[in-house]
């Protein structure tokens, strides 16, 4: 693969939109069954997605929450293992200590109304600390033995009455999955006692030097802040087995929630986006997941062309598509799943064409995921023999007639070739990256993160989320600029107001080095989606 002659954006799975100048006279006749029935081809690789049985449920099955969560002992052990991993990545030695600060309670601007608290992910990675204004202190003893203490604020009498009394310290420590619990105002004495007992010159690693100094006063400290964020981030690149199972469980609950929204759509073809959002959130919370991993994107019709559409003010209409991008989180671990489905339960011919283009790209991206593959090269781009997501997307756009090959090779259309004024034609339809890491953040450490390698290995968890969107501004740029020669603008403009299609799944690299799709059992093909909707009426 010759990378150097193509746009440097390849190295980061980057984005660029083609510009356009004139419309060639040899436009296809789009009003033919031949075009509508165009078959989308992509070469299969190591993962056979057709072997994954889609979950096509009955109404009763949709209402049942999945029993797939790892047990409490496994989760508690996960936090202990994470502390070891993070301390090692930070570089702390025996005698050193970590003092890390949790999130603060936030309020609506200009109001005393609290915003529901969610712990900082870097703290939640090492302890189940679900309280605000807390401190996590980890000491490194002989033979690198760790002791973790969670420190919480003392409550006033008013706080006891309004918020409830704090449990005994032993119960707090057990619930936080740490060794000890204490009050924040005890930090100076605890820290001083530990430092005095150390025979070496200890380093205090902290993520907030000013907070630490304000709490401990005159305690002399050798402070290191630089290593903390980098070390914890690096530790979070690779997920362990328990993390993957938490992500799998969140994805299974997301599946129930997605299908609940589908069923609500089947019952009311003019349902509002907000009602669909409510049905999704209700299903997630009924399965014990209070938090959504992000604001749900519920986009009906043309709103599907707005990548992060949050308004939820429109109604669905028969004949349109709904793009539903939503997922809950389980104990902080996020899923991130998108499905696009027809309001009526049946895809039109034009909708199938676009959907199958996106599916071909998604399947190729997932199939390319394996240990040793480079996300930026193998998964995103690939080759003619082993197409990645962008290669498959380009070929599918060619097959469907949206772009012209002219005298270019497919490789040039995939990567772009500035020396020949050939754009990356797919980027007009896909103006965002292929995916991202998933974990305690919905955009988590992974192959696209600076602290992590782009080479996949067991424990990496990434989304694969190609799409095709008909965005007016990008269509105009493509069809009224220097790159118009490459675009079938008559066909493209016939999709104005169509919205978009996105298919997004969460994929882990398993211990055997192969792809493990955590969400692919949610119907993905047009046939499976239509069969699911048909089942709602039975």
Summarize the helices and strands and which ones pair or pack.
Elements: H1 33-36, H2 59-62, H3 72-90, E1 97-101, H4 121-124, E2 135-140, E3 146-152, H5 157-163, H6 169-176, E4 180-183, H7 187-197, E5 204-206, H8 209-216, E6 223-224, H9 226-235, H10 241-267, H11 273-286, E7 297-300, E8 321-325, E9 329-330, E10 333-334, E11 338-342, H12 349-367, H13 375-379, H14 389-400, H15 410-415, E12 461-464, E13 467-469, H16 472-479, H17 489-494, E14 500-502, E15 505-509, E16 515-517, H18 526-536
* Overall residue-averaged pLDDT value: 90
* Percent helix: 25-40%
How many extended strands?
16
Cross-sheet strand order for the largest sheet: 4-3-2-1-5-6
Q: What is the approximate shape?
A: globular
Which range does the strand content fall in? 5-15%
Radius of gyration computed on alpha carbons = 26 Å
Regions with little confidence, pLDDT below 50 for 5+ residues: 1-12, 14-46
SS summary, helix count: 18
Distance between the termini: 52 Å
Q: What oligomeric state do these chains adopt?
A: single chain
Structural class: alpha+beta
- Characterize the biggest β-sheet: 6 strands, mixed
